[in-house]
């Protein structure tokens, strides 16, 4: 009688084990591949890249990101730059945390071809300060940290209407003092922001204003009010937007000055969901239960050693 009982149990265990391992394998295979680019920045990329690298896979949707680091020394030799040849096509999404010297011509063309062919680019904070001299980059990001003679400025007025200010008029790029500020969702049906509170308090950060560029087919997803009292512009400045580029998508958020800004649960949710959406056109990563509210910013707790 004993063997009669044990056999089905053994079979059941075997079935459960094989079922579990198969679904785990399939899950790993389905994880999106991210390439983070860093190496030069007027910000502390050595502190912020590890934050990005950690929270993306924590969502369960991404494999641990690879990092492509450029030469970090502005006097780097040609040989050192020759080693920076990221294989963009091997990734579902490229995330730029880079603000430095212009990449070699063939790397520029390679990124353009990757996005045009349906690739995905996500740009955080000062990564949009990079490459004013690279025309296609400016088209991809739409707006960047540029002087007021560079291109149009795009803001929203108090009625929520888009205002384009031509070059030469109004402020160029800048920011006031760092503070916590409200992110106002303008596109509540966009997959990245769908289900988020309409307004939520972002952790301490720089509130970029006066961003400039061609802003072609720019879709504004969220803004923040730039108060004069904080050194701002009294305009609703774009905080999250996206631009179609060929068959691909470019998703930008100007949030993320410091590692403390990137530890905002709202920022991490926006970037995780933004990466998934840019890569696939869909968002499956849930909005976390501890998402910031209109009155309270929420940051992930400091790590205990
Ligand atoms: Zn900054």
List the main descriptive attributes of the protein structure presented here.
single chain, 305 residues, alpha/beta, Rossmann fold, 9-stranded mixed β-sheet, 3-stranded antiparallel β-sheet, 7 helices, 14 strands, disordered N terminus, binds zinc ion
Kindly summarize this structure in a few lines.
The chain is 29% helix and 24% strand.
> Average pLDDT, to the nearest integer?
92
Domain tally:
1
What's the Cα radius of gyration? 22 Å
Write the CATH architecture name: 3-Layer(aba) Sandwich
Helices, by number, come to 7
Instruction: Report, as a whole number of angstroms, the end-to-end distance.
Output: 53 Å
Reading side by side through the largest sheet, how are the strands ordered? 2-1-3-4-14-13-12-8-9
CATH topology, what is it called?
Rossmann fold
Query: Ions, cofactors, ligands: which are bound?
Result: zinc ion
Helix/strand class = alpha/beta
The percent of residues in helical segments reads 25-40%
Q: Count the beta strands.
A: 14
Largest sheet: 9 strands, mixed
Uncertain regions spanning at least 5 consecutive residues: 1-23
